[in-house]
Amino acid sequence: MHGTILNYRRFPRGFSESTPQPENYLRSTTTLHYHNNHWRLALQRQMTLKAKTQGQKATGMEKPKIPDDKLAKHVHELYPKRAFVGSKFVGWTAFADILIGMEVNPNENRQRKIRCKVEQLRKPGHKFSLREPADVEKTMTAELNRTKETICRNQKAAVQAKEGPKKTNDAGQSISSILLGHRLSEMKKQAAQGGNWRSNKSAVSPTMPQSGSANSQGASNTDVESRTSSALQDYVTSGSDSESDSDDESGTVSIQESDDEEPDFSLMDELMPSSNQTSDSDSKLQGPRRDIGHGPLLSQSIVVEHARDLIPQYAFLGCLQDETFAESAAVKVFHNTNVPFSTFVCGVQGSGKSHTTAALLENALIPSKHLGRLRAPASALVFSYSDWADGGVGFEISEATYLAEALPAYPGAHVKRVTVLVSPSNPGIKNCYMGANIRVIPFKLDAKALNISTLLTLMAVNETSNTPLYMARVEAILRSIATNSQDGSMDYKLFKTLLAREKFDPTQRTMLDMRLNLLESFLDLTGQVPDLEYLPGEMTIMDFSDPFVTPNTACILFKLGLDRFVNSSQSTAKVVVLDEAHKYMLDSPGAELLSNRLKTAIRLQRHWGGRVIISTQEPTISTDLIALCSLTVIHRFTSPTWYAALRQHISAMGGDDRAIMRRIEELETGGALVFSPSAVLGKDDEGAPVKATGRLMGLRIRKRITKDGGESIMAV
C-alpha cells in the first residue's frame, strides 16, 4: 500500500490551539485507513458545532431559559406556588408580573408572551389550563383546617399517653377487663419486638416504628399502650354483647381508633346552605340574591335597591305594558348586562325586531348615562348575508353598522369602531360600507395557524352524508399529517405536495380543485392580512354577501368566525348576533353545522362570557335554539305556523291560543311580548323576588341613541 497510513489510535482525543487542523492532516495524507473516516467526520461535526455556537454568541442569540413549548407547563407548575399568598389569590396581573420577575432580563416580546400565555391558560380546554382561583383557595383553606385538626389530635394523644389508660370501677366489667388486659399484654410484647398486630375484622393495624434509641422505643411503647388502652376501654364500656360480636373464630378482637371516628362539625359550617349566604372568595350568590343578580330583566325598583351590591351594570330596555301590573306604563324594565344571556327575537318585517336587536347591542357596547351603567363594555360579532345581484343593486348592508353613528341628541354615544369582514371575491361591497368609524377588510385565515378541523370544515368534507372516494383519500392524508403534528397545526404546503402525488382521475381532480379553490380563496398565504382584534366596545360584522358564496358556504365561514371569536381573550364579555338569520339558516349542511355550534355556545355561555342574540323573521328555523334562550322577544306576526313553532318551546303559550294570537296580531311597531321566566319584577311582602314565571309580559322597547338605518321609506 503506497503512501502514509494513519492509525486512528494515534490521534489525540481533543484538539487545542497547538493541534494541527484537520485539513493539515488530510493534506499530508495520501491514503487513509477505513477507520479514519469516522474520526474525520467527528472532527468536522465538532468544528461545525463550534462555529455555530460562536455565531450565535456573536449575534446575541441565546437559548431562553424556558422554551416556548414548555412555557404553558412552567406557568401551570408555578401557579399554586407563586399566585397565592397564604390562601389568598394575588391576581392575574400580579401573577404574570411574578413570572416575568423570575426571568433573566426578559425583553418586551418575552414579557408579552408570558402575559398572553397566562390569559390563555385562564380559560378551560387547554392541556395546562389553570384552576379557578376560588377553587384553589378553598382547597388550601380546607388543607389548613385539616392540618390544624391533625395537630390538635396529636396533642390530645400526647396528653393521654402521659396520663396513662383510664381506670374503671364497674364490677360488672371485671371479667371483660381481665380478658382484654391479657390481650393488651400480648400486643405490647409484639410491639416491643417491632412487629405489627392485626385483627381479622378491623382495618386498623397499629405499626410500631423501629428505632435504636431507648427513649424512642419507650415513647413508641407508650404511644401504642395509650392508643390500644383507649380502644380497649371503649370496648369494655360497650358491654358483653359487643364483646361477643367482636370476637371471631380465632378469638381476636376488632379495635378501632376512637379519634378517627369523631367528626369535627365546625369544618362543615362553610358548606351549610343559606338563602342569604354569599361567598367572599368567588362572589357566587345563593337563593333570592342569586335570582336578582342573575336575572336577565329587572324592574326599576330592583335596580334602585341593589345597584350597589348585586347589579354592577344595567341598561334601560323598555316599559311594561301588562294589565296584571297597576300603572305598568310607568314601570321601567332594565337589561342586566352583567350576566350571560341568550335572546331570540322574531317578527315580520317592520315590526321592530331589528330595532330591538340594536337596543340590546347598545346596552352591551355603549356606555351612556341615558341608558344606565356599563363598567365593562362587551365586544360583538355580527353575522350578515344577503343576495348580491347586478353589481349590488338593491343591496342592504347590515343594520348593525349604524351603531357607529350617534344621534345628534346623544353625541359620542356610539361604538368605538366597526370592522366589516367581507368575501375576497366581492371587492365591490367595500363601497357600500364606507363611513366614519368603519373599516372593511377581506376575511382571511392565516395558513400558518390552520388546523385540521378548520381545513375539513372549509373543504366541506361533512357536507354530504356519503363522502366521495377522493375525499376519503384526502382525509387519509390529513390524518397522517395530524398524527405527526405536535400541536394540531398543519403545513399547508406539505398538504398540497402530498395531494399532488396522488393519482386522481380527471373527474376527481376537477372536483378536488373546486374545493381547494374555495379553501385558498379564504387563506392568507402571503401573511399580509393583519390579525383580528375583538376589543371591548368594538363590533365586527362578517358579511359574506357574494354571488360566489352560497348560504351554505356562508354558514361554514360563520362557524369558523364564531370559533375564533369565542377563543379570543381581548374581552371578557362577548356578544354574538345572527342578523336576519332566515336569509342563511336554511335547510343545508352548513346551517346545521352552525346551528349545532350555536347550541354548544349557548350551553357553555357562562364559561366564555357569551351573549347570543338571534334575530329572524321566521321562528321555524332551528326551533331547538328557542328552548335554550333565556329571553324570547315576540314582535307582531300573523302566521299560525310561526305560532305553533313558538308554542312548542314556550310554556306561557299553553293557555288560550286564540287570545294569545290576538295579542300578537295587535302589537304595534316596537311593542313585543316577552317571555323570560327568570326576570325579576319586584318583591312580595316578605321580601322574596317576584319572577315573571309562566307569563308573557307586554313590553314597549325604548328609543335608540344611534342612527336607525331600518326606517321605512314613505311616499309622502
UniProtKB/TrEMBL annotation:
This is Predicted protein. It comes from Leptosphaeria maculans (strain JN3 / isolate v23.1.3 / race Av1-4-5-6-7-8) (Blackleg fungus). Residues 196-232 have a biased composition (Polar residues). InterPro entries: P-loop_NTPase. Residues 154-173, 187-292 are annotated as: Disordered.
